[in-house]
Amino acid sequence: MTTIALFGAGGKMGCRLSSNLRNSDFEVRHVEVSEAGRKRLADELGVACVDEDLALAGADVVILAVPDVAIGKVAAKISPKLKAGTMVVVLDAAAPFAGHLPARDDLTYFVTHPCHPPIFNDETDMAAKRDFFGGASARQAIVCSLMQGPESAYGLGEKIARVIYAPVLRSHRVTVEQMALLEPGLSETVVASLLDVMREALDEVISRGVPKEAARDFLLGHLNILGAVIFKEIDGAFSDACNKAIAFGKPALMRDDWKRVFEPAEIAASIKRIT
């Protein structure tokens, strides 16, 4: 049986992982430094934590479900206690991309991240329809990267990823550099920023007299149909009026050089701010 030491087991992400790992064929040792986190695990999942040394003794895999800013410190602390061949799983590309993992060639580094349930889906169960984050009821895709280690280790890393993010719709293999393009580049710098602008635009039309509920319904309904056309979810096309509005709107809203956010130096700078 593969033994997993789960660090940060009582945190927001750690609890999700702890819940999904309960029904797996892995032996899991839970590590949590905060009293609140340990209590949460005990009360909600009936899980008892162990100390760090006991968790690491002979562990095959270590999952670091800790904040990005803490990964480098935690990894450096536990690295001398890890046997050769141990797999270290990180849940975000930021710290690995920034070089925060210890320089040990005899360790395997595996990075994985959820895509979260897609807007366009065929979920019918209400719990799944309301599971926006994933890892509970709704199916989601995931991305995985074998940063270093033998090729044979990829299968174990992906198996673990499929358990902690279950139910999984699809699994995509990418590099750590590609994962960094996806987040923070695509998902946060671009998508989150544009969605925040949409919310500001909603507030603006409300401030100009449009009833709040009418404005919200109008925005979210158009986000649904416009997104379905733009992302080829349906075979449709915009009206001439809409195309003219886009031709005017994009240069009014976007800098000409906005795609520079995907340049390696910009991605590195963004990750430096995060970590």
Characterise this structure:
The structure is a single chain. With 275 residues, the chain is of the alpha/beta class. Helix content is 48%, strand content 15%. The chain folds into two domains: 3-174, Rossmann fold; 181-274. It has helices spanning 12-21, 35-45, 52-56, 68-78, 94-97, 126-129, 154-164, 176-207, 212-230, 240-253, 264-274; strands spanning 3-7, 27-31, 61-64, 87-90, 108-114, 140-148, 168-173. Strand 4 (87-90), helix 5 and strand 5 form a beta-alpha-beta unit. The two termini are 34 Å apart. The mean pLDDT is 97.
SSE blueprint and pairings:
Blueprint: E1 3-7, H1 12-21, E2 27-31, H2 35-45, H3 52-56, E3 61-64, H4 68-78, E4 87-90, H5 94-97, E5 108-114, H6 126-129, E6 140-148, H7 154-164, E7 168-173, H8 176-207, H9 212-230, H10 240-253, H11 264-274
Helix pairs in contact: 8-9
